[in-house]
Amino acid sequence: MALQSPFFNNGKREDVRPNTPNGAALSTPAVTTAPAANTAPVQEGEAKLTVGPNIKLKGVEITDCDTLVVEGSVEATMDSRMIQISERGSFKGSAEIDVAEIRGSFDGNLTVRQKLVIYSTGKVTGRIRYGKVVIEEGGQLSGEIEFGATPSSSATGTGTARGTSTPKLQVA
After folding, report:
1. Separation of alpha carbons 115 and 112, rounded Å
2. Where are the domains of the chain?
3. DSSP letters of 57-90?
4. Residues of the chain with pLDDT > 90: what percent?
5. What's the pLDDT score for residue 46?
6. Quick one: average pLDDT of 94-103?
7. CB-based contacts of 29: which residues, under 8 Å, 6+ apart?
8. What are phi and psi for residue 81, nearest 5 degrees?
């Protein structure tokens, strides 16, 4: 059977065929794995960290990571290009990101230099700064909200926005 290990052979397949008692090799189909749904394709040389379901990563500083995919629970500080939080995923801490896609929960300080996308199942709370924001109906955004990736922006607000699908932020 052909085995594929992402840990030891850099994604290269290695054929391992067990022998039968008479020395003949067994014929079995190759084992393949499908890419995870809703994830951006990884480009050559891109550093991607995935925290899987039921995994808790606590008290760390994440650096030199192009994409962080959170399916479990993360308590950390980070500076990255992209974060993707799945429906069951949660991130607590501080993050400076180019693009954030939130389907689960984020609690803390979030600076999104380019685009913050909160899906219908997403909930973002804390101190949030963003360049652009898209909130799907049902998505939640609450706390200290500032337009622009720097604190010197002219448009600021404090409150809660829910279910807004346009880039304008209306504070209740």
Report:
1. 6
2. 1-33, 38-162
3. EEEEEEEEEEEEEESSEEEEEEEEEEEEE-TT-E
4. 56
5. 84
6. 97
7. 1
8. -85, -45
